[in-house]
Amino acid sequence: MPYLSGEETVKELRRALCNPNVHSDPLRHRNAVLRVIRAMSQGVDVSALFSEMVKACATVDIVQKKLIYIFLCSYAAVNPELSLLVINTLRKDCQDPNPMVRSLALRNMTNLRLSSLVEYVEQPLIAGLRDRAACVRRVAVLGWAKLHDLQPDSEIDAAVVNELYSLLRDPDPVVMVNCLRALEGILKEEGGVVINKPITHHLLNRLKECDIWGQCEVLKFLQRYQPQSEDELFDILSLLDASLVSPHPPVMAATVGLFLSLCGSLPAVGLSALRRAQGPLLAACGSGSREMRFTALCHIQLLLRSLPGLLGAHYKRFFCGYAEPAFIKQRKMKVLVELVNDDNVAMLLDEMKGYCTDVNPDTAQAAISAIGHIGRSYSDRSLEILVGLLGLKQDHITSAVVQTMRDLLWVCPQCSSTVCLALEECEDTMQDAQGRQALLWMLGVYGERISSAPYKLEVFIDDVRNETSAGVKLELLTASMRLFLCRPAEMQDMLGRLLHHYIEEETDMCVRDQALLYYRLLHCGKEETEKVLQGRRSDPSLGVLIGPPAESISQWAHSFNTLAPLLQSTFKPDSKPQLSDALRCDPVETSGKTPADCSPITQLAFLTSSSAAPLSLSVSPALSPEKFERLWLQPRAQHDEHGKLQQTVFQCSAQSLQASLQLVNVQTLAFTPAHARPWKVYLYTRMQLDSRGSTLILGELVHCEEEPEEKTVRVTLRQQPRDDETLKAFLSILTTVLHTHSSSNETLKDI
Amino acid sequence: GFIVKRELSQKAKLSIYSDLVNVFYEMVTALPGDQPPVVMVTHKDRYFVHVRQGGLFWVATTTADSSPFTIIEFLNRLSALVKDYCGVLNETNITENFALIYELLDEVLDYGYIQTTSSDILKNFIQTEAVSSKQFNLFDLSNVGLFGADTQQSKVAPSTAATRPIQGSREGGKSEIFVDVIERMSVVIGSNGVLMKADVEGEIRVKCYMPNCSEIRIGLNEEFSIGKSQLRGYGAAVRVDECSFHQAVRLDEFDNHRILRLSPSQGELTVMQYLLSDELPSAPPFRLFPTIERDKGGRLIVYLKLRCDLPPNSLFISPCVFNIVVSLSQELSSPDQRAELRPESRAVVWNIPRFAGGTQLSALFKLDIPDLSSASLLEVGPVSLSFELPKLTATGLQIRFLRLSPIQPSQSQRWVRYVTHSDSYTIRV
User: Fold this and answer.
1) MHD domain: which residues (chain B) (predicted)?
2) B76 to A291: CB separation less than 8 angstroms, yes or no
3) ipTM
């Protein structure tokens, strides 16, 4: 098509439309109209042709009619007077014997959206509701909704509303669904369409007749219904069971949504519905459409919040394909992190390792941080991979690894020795400010254990003039101060230079003030400085390390099957040691904290670091449950130690106990269910003896409530070979662990 | 509910809501890389949900509380409908057929509510004829007599046959039916050659251009079984883990005879979807034996030996393309001339146009990399293969027979086609 400016096109088209020869030949006439629509869809303003098009409307050619109606509906708003001319044609068409023409006319009459035309439209709409043809009734029903939308203030006749309610029993399922939609719109102020018991049961019975779109809509409306008795509820649920495992993801999702809203008071039923829906959800994850995959993945993330470990056996389904888009890969990794367990951790980490060298740096970064997350429960294996990645000497990988290590240290301080060793070797200077910040934080906090830390800092300090990021500057300052406290001889000169530079030459006021503060602080003496600077090394707020407790479904049920889960596009930021933490200057805040205020995990962290030297516990080589049982039942070959621990309260959850025991390298092997009495835990660990190899300790904790006022935990330990000293040490560790738990429960109760 | 739905192609803005189109276009292009399918509009709490099909964006605007499953499924369905009606999905075809698409949208959606997407119902309402852009295509010719030696030649449907508009059959076009068994393999093979993951997702798709066919009966392998417990017979069972059927399929003969019965609608229909996880009935079709080392000149030598393990009598008859992609993260100067280097994706791409079963191919790449260290060797890999295996299903599923009733006139054509694609076939090195 030759390029014509808008005006010329319009002129040209008008000439064609007015040509009497064209009018006489239906095909040419249609083509002329077609060209107008084409111009319209290409963005040319053809509103000037309105009157010509109105004339062309009087035709028997349905295709031409449809085209003209498209035109009229687009431009009616700018030509309200001329639109009146169309009404007569439309009203005439509403009487046409052909139902298709009737429905077309009725639909477009309501699509004109002109309030001046309402009076002409009402009568055909009422007739339309009683039309013989279902397609006309469908249009008429929605027509009322459009009419109401046009004039929200005017009351729709109560008779019409009643008629719409009665049309819920229309034989055509689309008419039924449209009635729901129309009533919802019309009765918005009164809370939408009423879903009472008869309507609910009617809708449920006709669900099968609807196509999938209708089913989704009906299921959504049914969410509003509250069954009157439990029996009724279960009747409804069993009716819907087939939809729950529907191969169509929209129906499945809508049914799950309905289950969740109906079972608000019966969480167990909701959970079992979710378990049942996992199959179709997984299938949707492998759908050919990548958008559908993404949606399903986002909803699986929701599911895992309440059922952690649900899909553990299916972890391979979430392995990333090479050609998948980055947004799917990153979501899959987030799901994989949730699915990790003892059986699949090796395979999973191996797979993740492959993603770390992905071409897309964001994906690589997501993979590295995912490995860091897994490291919270499987630190040895994860750290091995992370340390290996440092060897690649790739800027973006190194930066991501260093940040991940920092985050890992924050929650798992027991990893520090490995990380310190790795940092010793790491010679790179990173371009990325985030990475440098992370490195500096670790150098400051663990400086006494990294022998080359001062030299690494020296590189930064020598290059201080070229540093642009304020975050890095502040971190460098704090790290130098902290390192100075533990290694004054090496740091004194450097720190002096740094402070001098920042106080004299720095333009960023924040950095300068910080430097001044530190300078003055140093005048107060070592004690004071230490009080301010010895910040936390680990996250005091962290409750449980492994397997966050299952959230209740109600936390997220309202967002299921909405766009909300798809929108959380960014990784939830970790509880990173923020600048504010490093810079915490309030002495009351830091010095006032005694271990007792901290959560059990932190205390345990202290415990491990303090007891690391004389006592080293380890869980490898792992002990299988069968072997444990055999050893436990072996008569008298080993030493038994019985003890009673006096505990005020002992009602921590199994997960949190397991988490904290794992922290001190004690493996729990089995629990009895939470409400069983007596409640038992079996655990084991190996303890390094000085030169004679290791000793295996097996333990049983029994908590019985026979004497309620005296809540005790009985501990039975078996050891092989026997070593009294280690056994006592172990017992003291165990006591501390249990004690921290009970005391944290107490504090919880106080709150 | 959904307020407005209009699809648009990137350049041809079909929509009359051009302001919204522009907003979407700006938002989608402003974001870097691949896009998740939801884009938010900051004003008025309106969201764009989009799907990419056939190189086009299919966009819906909606509110936050609507179901993403429904919208995405609908957009996919809509694009399938447009494909059914226009033949092929591409920008020119869409702009040619704008009138038809307007008409289609008008019937499918009213006031933003989905009315129907069934092609059976729609065919009564859609009046506009599709404009098909017939281009002379060299592939049509090459596809026909290229492998004349193959005895099955006459059984091969021309690849463009199924890409015509469904309405063509109205005025006496050929009446044809296509039953396609399409499988997608996703395989991960570890560096030690162990199969780490093998999933096959498959579907049976029926594409029907027969106006007066009331019932199709599709017979599957009799030894076809679902789930682990249900093994039948003693032969090589064809097993899948999960299986789901379209709601229009009647399964009364399925349990005993493995027959699917359905009344086909015009256009495309996915009759059955199935999944086999963590297992392949036969050995994976390709094995790779890589050697990666550094030579004295500091170059990286990648020696790849690729073996095709299919039974030797299965020959490939359509061009099948292998992309062996080795990510390398260093600057590279030049490889051997047998393959192409793609610096932007840090990959070497090795194209193999034809590869017979039971044979072996090898390639040697020498890559100049500045600052090559021993650690860089760790970065090589994984190798990813993409291929298409015609006339083959990974699960072994076969269509035993395809019967139509009433008996169709003799000039009707029935096609059964098998193809296995690589969804993701990764070999670690």
Assistant:
1) 174-428
2) yes
3) 0.78
